[in-house]
Amino acid sequence: MASSYMLPGAQQAPSFHSHPSTASQPRQHHWSPYTENGGVILGIAGKDYVILAGDTRSSEGYSINTRTARKIFDVGSGLVLGVVGMSADGEELARRVARKIDDYKRSHDKHITVNAAAVMLSRILYAKRFFPYYVQPLLGGLDENGVGAIYTYDYVGSFERESSRAFGAAASLITPFLDNQINLKNQFEPGSNGEVPRKPGDMPRETVEKIVKDAFTSAVERHIEVGDGLQLVTVMRAPPRAEGAEPEEEEDEREKTAGGGVISEVMSELKKD
Amino acid sequence: MCCVAPDVVVVASRVAGLGLGSGSFGIRNQARVHETTTSPTSLSTLLASTEHQEPHLGIPIKMNQFPHGWGRPRDDVYGAYDSSYLNSSEPTSHTQRPIVTGTSVLGLKFNGGVIIAADNIASYGSLARYDNVERLLQVGTHTIVGAGGDISDMQHLHLLLDNLLIKEQYPADDHSLYAPQVHTYISRVLYQRRNKFDPLWNSILTAGADPKTSEPFLSYVDLRGTTYSAPALATGYGAHLAVPILRKHVPDEESAASLSLEEAQGLIEECMKVLWYRDARSGVSYSWAVVTKDGVTTGNKKIEKQSWKFAEMIKGYGAQNI
């Protein structure tokens, strides 16, 4: 019998017919527990901020289910989770992560750090190694030094920290744009005659927000599963209190998130055709 | 059957996995392994033989003589071995298919409430098997659940919802289940069943209104646990035929908030008529329900003012002469 670990295309060619040892075909109708709901998300980490953005279209095949589905979730403790793929799995994953982060805070009386949450999310995904969440997640937050962090995953929990990443239907359209505009690939210092490459990093948040919006408006033009609205979520350090201003309430130091991050959300329009 | 050496028997029963003791050996036709007879001395001869005949007795050999399947019934004599009952490496699967089905459910928000409608047909394939089926269920005081897809799964879900309501009903504590809670409950049930590979084969709309704020609620959930909300929703063919019409009038929440009940009723009527014209699994009579902060109003309606004039124009699909 063909091993379930056989690579596609690799053919077992026995010189004889072996006798059956397992059921050759499970008796079942072709029903898939998975579906694809389109959409695209992207995350960019800055020196003291993180931006996660996603479109708000949710589709199935050629049908648009709704134009107002959020893909970026506030999972507590100043962390945000972006999910794209199958929305039912994505929302379930976001609920579980939010619940775990809340549990952590209640057990340890402190906020989880983004790197600890990143490992935890990897474990959650790997625990379903043989019936995976059909989701590509991006986890964002400020690390202990207040520096922006984006953690990117595959379906079964492999992860790494990156500075920018696009996932989802139009990831292949947005990725080269980010390479060029965020990581400044193939860009050179003016006047260097193409000798000195431009160095990435240290981009002001306002500039990055413009690049994010451009990325989405371009993706909308070329991908049918992307559009309708843009959800732009930012994690940044809480603005320092104005000089001489009295604190409104007694502030508990423990209420501050691990990286001091505060989450804000801006919704805007994208083309709906 | 008299001269088989014991070591051959051991090999045969082990390979075949029948685990027969040597005590049963020699009873003719008791098991397929014993259909065959052989002598260890003649094995090499047999392997080379294309005749597949016991060389001494002229009895046809029905046992597989090749080393990889030795002792098993020969496929060309008995047919391929049915292995389907053997343990599968796949996860347990209960996946069924819908049998008796209902078609679309429509839902539309308006200023101060929601209207929802579903026809009364339950189909068995293309047969309109039952023509008086209620697919809208009132859950509590301010919620209507409309189901498309498998009718028996819908009825099972109705049972779950009835039990949920009894369990959660405490008259003294002033808490009741409203549409958001009912929708979330249904979505968890459906998602859990898809995780068990035993889905409830339905697409469901939950409609309701908040008794205090009048805020309308309308949400969809299907057999994979996929959920979404919009001011206008439909399941099944309605998603293709009715939603474009509804969205033209109600593209977003703001326009739904300025839609009157009468306009909403007119739109639903129009869409039910379009579905009656074009969806072959739909029915001429349908149930509707309106939920506002004052509660639920329900009714039954027949498609009126039908005109099949357009059908004359349709050519090329049937057996007519063009």
UniProtKB/TrEMBL annotation, chain A:
<dbReference type="GO" id="GO:0019774">
    <property type="term" value="C:proteasome core complex, beta-subunit complex"/>
</dbReference>
<dbReference type="GO" id="GO:0043161">
    <property type="term" value="P:proteasome-mediated ubiquitin-dependent protein catabolic process"/>
</dbReference>
<keyword id="KW-0647">Proteasome</keyword>
<comment type="subunit">
    <text>Component of the proteasome complex.</text>
</comment>
<comment type="similarity">
    <text>Belongs to the peptidase T1B family.</text>
</comment>
<comment type="function">
    <text>Component of the proteasome, a multicatalytic proteinase complex which is characterized by its ability to cleave peptides with Arg, Phe, Tyr, Leu, and Glu adjacent to the leaving group at neutral or slightly basic pH. The proteasome has an ATP-dependent proteolytic activity.</text>
</comment>
<feature type="compositionally biased region" description="Polar residues">
    <location>
        <begin position="12"/>
        <end position="26"/>
    </location>
</feature>
<feature type="region of interest" description="Disordered">
    <location>
        <begin position="1"/>
        <end position="30"/>
    </location>
</feature>
<keyword id="KW-0963">Cytoplasm</keyword>
<dbReference type="GO" id="GO:0005634">
    <property type="term" value="C:nucleus"/>
</dbReference>
<comment type="subunit">
    <text>The 26S proteasome consists of a 20S proteasome core and two 19S regulatory subunits. The 20S proteasome core is composed of 28 subunits that are arranged in four stacked rings, resulting in a barrel-shaped structure. The two end rings are each formed by seven alpha subunits, and the two central rings are each formed by seven beta subunits. The catalytic chamber with the active sites is on the inside of the barrel.</text>
</comment>
<dbReference type="InterPro" id="IPR029055">
    <property type="entry name" value="Ntn_hydrolases_N"/>
</dbReference>
<keyword id="KW-0539">Nucleus</keyword>
<dbReference type="GO" id="GO:0010499">
    <property type="term" value="P:proteasomal ubiquitin-independent protein catabolic process"/>
</dbReference>
<dbReference type="GO" id="GO:0005737">
    <property type="term" value="C:cytoplasm"/>
</dbReference>
<protein>
    <recommendedName>
        <fullName>Proteasome subunit beta</fullName>
    </recommendedName>
</protein>
<dbReference type="InterPro" id="IPR023333">
    <property type="entry name" value="Proteasome_suB-type"/>
</dbReference>
<dbReference type="InterPro" id="IPR016050">
    <property type="entry name" value="Proteasome_bsu_CS"/>
</dbReference>
<dbReference type="InterPro" id="IPR001353">
    <property type="entry name" value="Proteasome_sua/b"/>
</dbReference>
<feature type="region of interest" description="Disordered">
    <location>
        <begin position="238"/>
        <end position="273"/>
    </location>
</feature>
<dbReference type="Pfam" id="PF00227">
    <property type="entry name" value="Proteasome"/>
</dbReference>
TrEMBL record, chain B:
<protein>
    <recommendedName>
        <fullName>Proteasome subunit beta</fullName>
    </recommendedName>
</protein>
<dbReference type="InterPro" id="IPR023333">
    <property type="entry name" value="Proteasome_suB-type"/>
</dbReference>
<dbReference type="GO" id="GO:0005634">
    <property type="term" value="C:nucleus"/>
</dbReference>
<dbReference type="Pfam" id="PF00227">
    <property type="entry name" value="Proteasome"/>
</dbReference>
<dbReference type="GO" id="GO:0010499">
    <property type="term" value="P:proteasomal ubiquitin-independent protein catabolic process"/>
</dbReference>
<dbReference type="InterPro" id="IPR029055">
    <property type="entry name" value="Ntn_hydrolases_N"/>
</dbReference>
<keyword id="KW-0647">Proteasome</keyword>
<keyword id="KW-0539">Nucleus</keyword>
<dbReference type="InterPro" id="IPR001353">
    <property type="entry name" value="Proteasome_sua/b"/>
</dbReference>
<dbReference type="GO" id="GO:0019774">
    <property type="term" value="C:proteasome core complex, beta-subunit complex"/>
</dbReference>
<dbReference type="GO" id="GO:0043161">
    <property type="term" value="P:proteasome-mediated ubiquitin-dependent protein catabolic process"/>
</dbReference>
<dbReference type="GO" id="GO:0043248">
    <property type="term" value="P:proteasome assembly"/>
</dbReference>
<dbReference type="GO" id="GO:0034515">
    <property type="term" value="C:proteasome storage granule"/>
</dbReference>
<dbReference type="InterPro" id="IPR016050">
    <property type="entry name" value="Proteasome_bsu_CS"/>
</dbReference>
<keyword id="KW-0963">Cytoplasm</keyword>
<dbReference type="InterPro" id="IPR016295">
    <property type="entry name" value="Proteasome_beta4"/>
</dbReference>
